[in-house]
Amino acid sequence: MNPARPRPVTSAAHLLVVAILLAAATAAGILAPAPAFARQPPSYIPATFNAQSDSLGFPWNMNQQGHMDQGQNSCFTVAMSLQVNSANFTPSPNTPGIMSPDGLEYIITGNAGGQVEVTRRIRFDLKASCVRYIDTISNPTSTAVPATITLMNQFGNRFDMLYTDRGTSGSSLTGRESGVVAVHKANSGKPSVLFVVSSPNARLRPTIVSHQNYQLRMDYNVTIEPGKRVSIASIIAQRNLSSTNITPQLLAPLFKPLTLARANRDLPIDLRGTLQNAGPGPGEGRSVNQLEALNIAPANTDTLALGEDTRLTGSLTWGSLAITTAYGKRNLNADEVAAITGPQSTGHTTQVFLRDGQVLTGSLEATDMRFTLSSGSVVELAVGSLDRIMMRQRKGSDAASTATQLETTSGDRLSIAAGPAASGLRLLLRSPWGERTATLDEIISLRPMDDGNVGYRVALSDGSVFTAFLDGTSLELQTALFGPRKIPIVHVRGIYNPSARQPLQDADKDDLAAPHTVLAGGQVLAGRVELPELHMTSNGQTIPVAPGQIRELHNTSDGADLPIDRPIVFKADLWGGGSISGEIRQSLLPFRVGDKIWQIPTRDIVDVVVPVPIISEGMRDNIARLIRDLGVDEWEKRETATQELTNLGYLAKAQLAEAAQQAQDAEVRTRAQKILDALNNANP
Questions:
Q1: What is the pLDDT of residue 21?
Q2: So what's the pLDDT on residue 448?
Q3: What kind and span of H or E run contains 329?
Q4: Residues 436, 412: one domain?
Q5: 334: containing domain
Q6: CA 629 to CA 631: how far, in whole Å?
Q7: What is the CATH number of the domain that holds 658?
Q8: Least confident interval from 29-43, 198-212, 422-436
Q9: pLDDT tens-digit profile of 561-591?
């Protein structure tokens, strides 16, 4: 910015010349809407379509339409072919596909039937041995378009059986099921094909149709509003199954790394918001105040946007620039401003987006504001007629703040300064089951509910994700820009903590390592059942079981809203081996959540998971005695100890692992390792 530059004389003749230049540029196509290829980051290059091979040795042969032509040993002949209302996706002849330099990510644009616009985003994850698709369908018309989005798959030979990811035979997805696997016969020499087609409990799931076990199609039925877009996320993978006896235990480790929540983390927030079959992750912290929503690609020049179609590149300068918000006035310099939206964009007010992620809403005051086109022409700007301006990228100054940010209902997004005020703040969260307090450091995100529902969706650093209300009258905060401020609770739209988000987004920590409960509506509570015993009734027999000895307690109806008089059947898999299927006699279960006890109706529970068994001192002593018996002289006693330790399963795993590494007796080490190997093979 150069405020000392002499101001040019503006006249009617000058403005007429600028208007003629703009009209000529538009007619020549210079200012026409940039094609998808031009809007992409400069690191993308024109696409070439070569065969890929993943870490398990499976080939992937993708063509220009973005679908696969052949799997391992022709297990499929076509996979992930896209149709919209039965019309095949056709790439645009004028817009070539693009790819990342390493050839792992592709973007292909085109249409299907001429009525809708289509963008296919394909990413090869060779390490995880899978391919992720994001298919975005846009409606450029002025009327709503009902659409059936189809993913078509054709197999080289008939597959033998179709199972859901939870081991149910058939193609109907219910409860927390999110995918299917087409299993080939063991002697066919062809791998099975896994498809992940939704998130658990997603609002949209496909209708999956198998035609004579040769063809498998997934149909998603949506309505695309005028000028809007919808996206479908999916994953395909090839695997050699070690057994044709398909069980949930066999499929669980295959589908576990293939969740849409994990695969979609790299997507821009505005694109994630269009996903119909995959909701936002717990740490996503979705906000309406995102630069992506401005629909202007970052560049090495400033960009002036006028309406949907006009983009001018050049330099924005001003003499002085300040914004007055509800929390104070802020003078602005070019180094801190990332974008500006004016009344022509918002309809009533002005927003300034700062490079650290903060957003200021209010009344903008500017002197000598002008935009100099790359051609040298100058456009004088008035605050009242501003649409959108994206400032050029600046190395080292575009890093987002790691501070917790609070978003208000008026559109401000303010960083909260660290210090005693922030560390001492406790937010009181009230849920239908109980209350708990949370510090700012514990909050990953607190965002408004979708579809106009009241309350917040809260994600905490311990892995909890639940619906709650924020109690109290106001929050007293130390803001980074305006000092201490009291924010009324009714003005809080959301809270987002980038620094707390990372632990949950670490792919190696996808599953919570602590006891937790999955509730209806995809809610998760980190905490344990606060009872000495659960009482389960199976075939008239009441069986007491300690919660710490339950590996997983699963609601067989997957949390479906059953009639109140219909009993809920749970299946409990035990750490010591065996399982119990029956009703839980207690209608309410107490859970320790933070420092509070929540009373949760049994009917609301989908899963209770105890990742590590809780072992009493008496059981530890018994296991230690059995391990010592592995090395005694009497063969019969060694065999008995081996069998008893095998029966104990995971309860003995930690002590067996220690014995296999550190026991002085070679016989003890050998037998302990054999028990561990058998345990790991039985429970991959």
A1: 34
A2: 87
A3: strand 328-331
A4: yes
A5: 12-27+289-390
A6: 5
A7: 1.25.10
A8: 29-43
A9: 556 667 889 999 888 778 899 999 999 999 9
Final residue belonging to a domain, choices 246, 272, 298: 272
Q: Are both 74 and 206 inside the same structural domain? A: yes
Distance in angstroms (rounded) separating the CA atoms of residues 459 and 464: 6
**One domain, residues 349 and 416:** no
Residue 283 lies in a domain: no
Name the token pair of 567: 């009993």
Same-domain status, 639 and 551? no
Instruction: Read off the tokens for 487.
Output: 């924010």
Residue 23 — very low, low, confident or very high, per pLDDT cuts 50/70/90?
very low
Q: What pLDDT is stored for residue 18 in this prediction?
A: 34
pLDDT at 577: 75
Determine the Cα–Cα distance for residues 24 and 18; give it in Å rounded to an integer: 10
Beta carbons of 200 and 519 less than 8 angstroms apart: no
Rounded-to-integer distance, Cα 595 and Cα 657, Å: 34
For residues 603 and 625, membership in a common domain is answered with no
Q: Give the other-Cβ count within 10 Å of 474's Cβ.
A: 13
- Write down the pLDDT at residue 493: 92
Question: Is there a single domain that holds both residue 150 and residue 65?
Answer: yes
CB-side exposure of 2: number of CA atoms within 13 Å?
6
Inside any domain, residue 63:
yes
* Angstrom distance (rounded) from CA 182 to CA 48: 30
Asked if residues 599 and 531 have their Cβ atoms less than 8 Å apart, the reply is no
124: β partners: 131
- Rounded Cα–Cα distance for residues 43 and 100 (Å): 7
449: which 2 tokens? Answer: 């509910």
